Structures are given as structure tokens and as C-alpha cells.
């Protein structure tokens, strides 16, 4: 089992950078920061995508730093200092965490505050694919990041 590295306590660190550094210390993780030359749309520049191994086609986690108008605005990420961690949980972990499966997200989404910091919720757009999210996360993300990393590493080994 992969242990998640302990957070660094650097008061002068940007929390997005600090979280990204923690994720990158997991084994065989590659980070892509969207920007000029990456092929990413300008609205996603600054967002971070985390992959295991050479696959680099399907991230196990992302950090998003702004709204995408008309697509993903419910977490109100354009507020100062606000960002969101998204993690591929898989169907079983999604059900364990939220009490219903990804396929039931539509029936529950009106009950969710997608902008509340520090608590897990189904991803506003990708919940049906088993993704969960948290705005301005702390150490409570370690277990689920480790889970997603293990799933992605197993997928990379299978090819």
C-alpha cells in the first residue's frame, strides 16, 4: 500500500502548490500544468492534472483554479484564494462516501453546496464517472488521494 506523504507546513507556500507537491511525491506521478503549448484551452490554464506512469491519458486527480463559464461554475472558483481538488474515486468509493452511486447524482445534485470549503461532494460535472471534489482541501484528502493513486497505478500496470 502506498502511504501518502505528510504535508509540509510552509506558511509562505501557495496552498495549490503545496497540495500539488504532496501529490507529486506519490510514486510515479506526473503533473501537467495547463498553459500555452500544452494544447489546453486558455480557460484551463493554471489547472493541474496528475497521472500515474506513462499513460498520461486519464488523470487520477486534478486541481482547478477558476470557473469555466457555461461548463463548470457551481463551485464559484473565481473567488480569491479558492481552488478545487477533484479525485477519481470509482463507483464503490463514491457510493461509500456519498451514500448513493454516481448514476444517482442527478437526483441529489439540488441538495449539494458545490462551493462549501473543506468537505467532499460529487464533482459538479463528472460525478457520473465516479469523481468527487473538495474546495480548499486540507489533510482530509490524503486517504482518497491514495485510493485514487492506487487505482490509477493498477490501471497503468494493466496497460
Automatic annotation (TrEMBL):
Superkingdom of origin: Bacteria
Stretches assigned to the DUF6194 domain: 17-158
InterPro entries: DUF6194
Protein name stated in the entry: DUF6194 domain-containing protein
Species per Swiss-Prot/TrEMBL record: Actinoplanes regularis
Amino acid at each position: 500500500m502506498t502511504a501518502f506523504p505528510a504535508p509540509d507546513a510552509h506558511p509562505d507556500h501557495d496552498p495549490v502548490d503545496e497540495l500539488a507537491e504532496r501529490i507529486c511525491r506519490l510514486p510515479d506521478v506526473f503533473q501537467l500544468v495547463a498553459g500555452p503549448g500544452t494544447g489546453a484551452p486558455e480557460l484551463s490554464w493554471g489547472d493541474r492534472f496528475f497521472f500515474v506512469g506513462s499513460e498520461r491519458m486519464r488523470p487520477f486527480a486534478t486541481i482547478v483554479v477558476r470557473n469555466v463559464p457555461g461548463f463548470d461554475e457551481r463551485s464559484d472558483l473565481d473567488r480569491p484564494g479558492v481552488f478545487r481538488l477533484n479525485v477519481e474515486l470509482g463507483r464503490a468509493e463514491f457510493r461509500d462516501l456519498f451514500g448513493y452511486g454516481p448514476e444517482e447524482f442527478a437526483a441529489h445534485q439540488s441538495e449539494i453546496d458545490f462551493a462549501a470549503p473543506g468537505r467532499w461532494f460529487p464533482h459538479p460535472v463528472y460525478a457520473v464517472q465516479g469523481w468527487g471534489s473538495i474546495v480548499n482541501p486540507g489533510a482530509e484528502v490524503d486517504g482518497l488521494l491514495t485510493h485514487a493513486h492506487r487505482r490509477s497505478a493498477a490501471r497503468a500496470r494493466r496497460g
